[in-house]
Amino acid sequence: MKYTGLAVFAFIFGTQYPCAAQTSTDTEHLVTGQLMFDEQPVEFAHIFVAETLENVKADGAAISDSSGYFEIQLRKYDVYPVNLFLLIHHVSFMNKNIGFSIEEEEIETIDLGRIELEPGVDMLPEVTVTAIREHIRREGNKLVYTIAENPTFRGQLLETVFSQLPGIQVTPDGDLLLMGSGGITVMINGRERHLTGRELTDLLQGYSADMVESIEISTSPTAEFAADQERVININLRDDKAGLTSVNTLTTGHGEKPRLNATSSNFYTTPKFQAFLNPQYINRQTIEYSTLRRNRSLPDAGRIFQDNEIRIKNESWGLLGDFTYDLNSSFTFNGSVKLDVLDEEIPRTGESRYLNTDHQTDLHLLTDNITRNRLRSLLLGFGGDYGSLLSIQYNRASYQIDSDQINRSETTPFNPSHQFGFSMDSNSKINFDIAEADLQPNIHSDIRFKTGLRYSSIRYASDIDFTLESDNAEWVLELLDFNRYRYRETNIGLYGSIDFQSENWSVNTGLRAERTSVQNSTDNSNGNLIDDTYLHWFPNINLFRTISAHHNVGVNFVRRINRPNYNSVNPTIFVLDPDSYLQGNILLQPQLSEIYEFVYIWRNNYLLSLSYQRIHDYIVQTPSQAGNLLRLQPTNFDLKTSANAYFSIPLRISRFWDLRGEFSFVDARFKKRFENEEIIRTSRSYFISTHHNFHLPGNLLLNITFFYNSPEIDGLYKTRQRYSLSSSIRKSLLDNRLNVRLSMNDLLNSYNIHNRVRDLNQNLVIDQNLDNRFVSFSISYSFNKGREARQRTSRFDNDEFRRAEH
Asked: Does residue 578 have a cis bond before it (omega within 30 degrees)?
């Protein structure tokens, strides 16, 4: 085949695209072929195999993929030879029937080769033709991925689906990125869920792709979104599966330590009521190893070597729920709940060696540190929609966090004068309130105007009790000279947005204004540390043009903000060991970004994105030293500019091998003035990932994923290259209701962190060996109890059979 020559590029560029066979667990024969018209592949054709052209009962079915290929698995027949018909239907071509036979039971593959179609549209009486939508499409500023109608994703968990979508990356350490960047806002059915990237990947292990209509991503949100929402993922659940649908998943794994994830995703749908409930239990244990080497900041003071082992054990229970009820044809009421209970224990052991200028050890310190965190949180939300005219939503979240830390160190051989002892207990409460209203009057069929108001409030209160157990810990008392910390932030936003739609154009422009007030205080003599109010304007414009059936382009401009949160400005210190600590920065300023983006989509599958970003007061973690002490603290760089090129390429190497490759290149520049010295840093880095899917006999799917991050610079840090090789194999049973998967993550144990700082008289090296290499086994079973859903499926199938017969 003509794609075979591309195999040498398999591990550089790759994507999965649909093979789309409708499979059975009792299969003996595989029918394959390629649909073509005018030297171009034909996608989204419906293909059936039947024993007769009258009263069609299909023995197997498939949908042709982006390369025109199809695969149909057939059962074993009772008598051979058997004469069969291949029925092909496409909304833009003439129906075509091809006869073929299977002579012997031992024949495994019947390749029908290249099949030419003829243009034309059949007008079928009393038959409604439903065309399958493209896999990637542009709607305003959003990229929309069709999930429900993509046969490739049937029976897969969303965690696997996400890793196969262009623009979305699931890193080996479980984080989620959009176009290579984090900081993602997660929404389900258009409502924010307040999930971190890691929480989302945990949740996705319990969601089946069969329950999802589409996934939307946006890296340049419109004025309707809050100004601090720079990257958005929205998961639209299906509402056409009546009755109860449940997906139950158990995942167990082992890296350095065992881990467990149990999830049950339950969906219930009636014509007026839709609800989902997702309980989840996670028990995860990991071990991380870190090494720190640094010069002391004092002249000719020698060096410090630190080695640490961090064991993290957390056990969490979670519940995520949502419902929507249609009171009448005009008004819809909704509610949501999110409950989390987390118990975490982090013992940390290590040693520090202090070397003099002759590289002789003048002190050897052993550290024993343990931190315990207990979190309880509850989020409740409710709202309503009056048709498409008015939408009102209110969310209230409360968090209770109790933390205690014990840090003790002693020398070997024992020397009381160098002993270090410190303990701290903190009790924190966090309350979020978000109220928003959106109004969309009906102006014109092609023009949509939308305006809205959003109010949000964050209140954080922390009470601290600490005890010194040795004189060497007095530096902690000097920095932590308060027992109470209070933070409050209120934000009021108002926006207006206009959408214009035509046959080939989509235009959105809007303006958002947000006024923010921040108060930050402690109970020491300094009193109020922050009392600031500021107003910012956030314009956006999004243009999208459909040039032809295979070419779409878009241009976006948006301005966003990243505000320091209550932790970033919290002056409370977190002691890592006797020589280093974390601390917030009360002088931290909000980060403002201007983003320019160009997007090109070819054949609804290939994606190219070019962007330029200018960030003022860029926030980045920065180390600084005073004597033996190392402080890690967020600071503002004056300016960061970056140019980014990203593209995703799907390739079909063979009938059994689908690939998707992603490549991202970033040219970044950082500028910062420290006292009288101006620092300018430049970084040219790139990211490559390949996703290989092998469709094996017996309904097996083998996935191999490779990540590579080149060396890069972020602020003062220079990070060494990182790479990872992961693999999984999945077996589907019982018509895709039962899925079993074995996964191996970061097989080479190579996705670790090596940071170096050589600035401001600092020579600092931090190595982190993360616990990313593990093996996991998951089993997932889904069922649907709903007569209406089964009837709907049956009607759809019968329509397809009748349509193919004609």
From this structure: no
Pairing relation of β-strands 212-218 and 142-146? Answer: antiparallel
Provide the whole-model pTM: 0.78
CA atoms within 13 A on the CB side of 97: 14
Residue 125 has pLDDT above 60, yes or no: no
Which pair of tokens denotes residue 666? 């970033």
Reported as half-sphere exposure (CB side, CA atoms, 13 A), residue 353 has a value of 9
Distance, CA of 342 to CA of 332 (rounded, Å):
34
pLDDT digits (tens, 9 = 90+) for 509-527: 999 999 999 998 888 756 5
Cα dihedral 690, 695, 696, 697 in deg (nearest 10): 180
Asked, as a colleague might, if the bond just before 81 is cis with ω within 30 of 0, I would say yes
The residues, any chain, with a CB within 8 Å of residue 58's CB and separated by 6 or more, are 48, 49, 50, 797, 800, 801, 804
pLDDT, position 508:
92
- Mean pLDDT over residues 5-9, rounded? 35
User: Amino acid identity of 719?
Assistant: T
Distinct helix (H) and strand (E) counts, the chain: 4, 44
pLDDT tens string 310-322: 888 989 999 989 8
Helical (H) or strand (E) element with 340? strand 331-355
Write down the residue that tokens 């926006």 correspond to. Answer: 495
SS (H, E, C) 259-277: EEEEEEEEEEECCCEEEEE
How far is 726 from 748, CA to CA, in rounded Å?
Answer: 9
Residue 527 to residue 672: CA distance in whole angstroms: 30
Residues 215, 165 contacting (CB under 8 angstroms): yes
Give the span between the Cα atoms of 737 and 591, in whole angstroms: 47
Helix (H) or strand (E) holding 288: strand 273-295
For 148, the token pair is 């429900």
Q: Assign 624 a pLDDT band (cuts: 50, 70, 90).
A: confident
Question: At a CB cut-off of 8 Å and minimum separation 6, what does 547 contact?
Answer: 504, 553
Eight-state DSSP code of residue 51: S
The two structure tokens encoding residue 698: 């017996």
Percent of the chain topping pLDDT 70 = 86
What letter represents residue 507's amino acid?
V
Ranges assigned E (strand) in 675-799: 677-696, 700-709, 712-714, 717-719, 722-733, 738-745, 753-757, 764-769, 774-785
Give residue 297's pLDDT band: very low, low, confident or very high (50, 70, 90): low
The Cα 52–Cα 85 span in angstroms is 7
Confidence of residue 124 (pLDDT cuts 50, 70, 90): very low
Mean pLDDT taken over the chain: 82
Distance CA 434, CA 403 (A): 27
Q: What's residue 760's pLDDT?
A: 64
Strand order across the 136-139 sheet: 136-139, 142-146, 212-218, 231-237, 184-188, 191-192
For 296-307, give one letter per residue: b (16+ CB within 10 A) or e.
bbeeeebebebb
- DSSP β-ladder status, 243-254 and 176-178: unpaired
Distance in angstroms (rounded) separating the CA atoms of residues 244 and 276: 9
Residue 18 confidence (pLDDT): 36
Token pair belonging to 54: 């009258």
Q: Which residues pair with 438 in a beta bridge?
A: 391, 452
Whether the pLDDT of residue 348 is over 50: the answer is yes
The pLDDT tens digits of the residues spanning 732-759 come to: 888 778 889 899 999 999 988 888 887 7
SS3 77: coil
307, containing H or E segment: strand 303-326
Task: DSSP letter for 10, please.
Answer: T
The 10 Å Cβ neighbour count of residue 462 is 21
- 581 pLDDT above the threshold of 70: yes
d(C-alpha 175, C-alpha 8), whole Å: 30
**Tokens encoding 579:** 């020589």
H-helix or E-strand containing 85?
Answer: strand 82-90
Q: What is the pLDDT of residues 421-446, one digit of tens each?
A: 888 899 999 999 999 999 999 887 78
